[in-house]
Amino acid sequence: MNIDELSNLAKKIRIDIVKMITEAKSGHPGGSLSIVDILTTLYFEEMNIDPANPKWEKRDRFVLSKGHAAPALYAVLAHRGYFPQDILMQLRKCGSILQGHPDMKKTPGVDMSTGSLGQGLSAANGMALAAKLDKADWRVYSIVGDGEIQEGQIWEAAMTAAHYKLDNLTLFVDHNGLQIDGTNEEVMNVMSVEEKFRAFGWNVLKINGHSFEQIKAALVLAKSVKGKPTAIIAETQKGKGVSFMEDKVGWHGKAPTKEECAQAVKELGGVL
């Protein structure tokens, strides 16, 4: 896909996210919208996967450590062909395959059940180490939130990944600066994220997380580095694409009204 095609697809995915959360009357729009461009690039450009065979042993793996952003992952999986797109409107419904957090036993394409913040990187480590032990060439990708890296387990996992030289692991830090209770600096300052990962022995890159060119270039660099894992610090905007949600902490975990949904979809170039 060229950049225009990726951009247009990302808009459709953002529209689905807003519609899904509105229909569910519950969910996390802000942090879902901020990672759309990264996920779109991974699933439509980067990862070696087969939607017709979600459990293919040679596939690349993905772990959404910030599991509350599940609507973004679900929308991407649906557009990639893992399940019909009309199922998206069943988000958080009783009995649905699309629960509030990813469930690998229910949802095709989900490689790891997540939701308890801080645990996803450890799971990704295990997958990457398994590939090393099996001498397999598939890779592992993960996304953590910047608020999430306040969790101590993240840094135990970071130390472990460097110790085992997991150069088949690429981690994106969704650095949108906000979490449920305010800015990261107000709640628990995690800066400097780049210096911390470097100190733990990682290759570190910093990009605009909404630039497809920079995302793609960073992924190429990550694959070229040997002997250490790569952390890509992606500067993003919470609520990206919806004017009244962008950089607003109140949209961390609040569903839009039908009127707000209509405005958001219009801004994104869609129709209800």
Which secondary structure elements does this structure contain, and how are they paired or packed?
Blueprint: H1 3-24, H2 29-33, H3 36-46, E1 61-64, H4 70-80, H5 120-133, E2 140-145, H6 152-163, E3 169-175, E4 178-179, E5 182-183, H7 184-188, H8 193-199, E6 203-208, H9 212-224, E7 230-235, H10 258-267
Helix pairs in contact: 1-3, 1-4, 1-10, 3-4, 3-9, 5-6
Concise account of the structure shown:
With 272 residues, this protein is an alpha/beta fold.
Characteristic terms for this protein:
272 residues, single chain, two-stranded antiparallel ribbon, 7 strands, Rossmann fold, alpha/beta, 5-stranded parallel beta sheet
Question: What would your notes on this structure say?
Answer:
The chain has helices at residues 3-24, 29-33, 36-46, 70-80, 120-133, 152-163, 184-188, 193-199, 212-224, 258-267; strands spanning 61-64, 140-145, 169-175, 178-179, 182-183, 203-208, 230-235. It is α/β, with parallel strands linked by helices and 272 residues long. The strands form two sheets. It has a five-stranded parallel β-sheet, with helices on both faces. It starts with a helix and ends in a 5-residue tail after the last helix. The model has no long low-confidence stretch (mean pLDDT 97).
Question: Strand fraction band?
Answer: 5-15%
Look at the structure and give the mean pLDDT: 97
At the third CATH level, what is the topology name?
A: Rossmann fold
- Give a short account of the largest sheet: 5 strands, parallel
Please tell me the CATH architecture by its name.
Answer: 3-Layer(aba) Sandwich
Globally, the shape reads globular
CATH H level, superfamily name: Thiamin diphosphate (ThDP)-binding fold, Pyr/PP domains
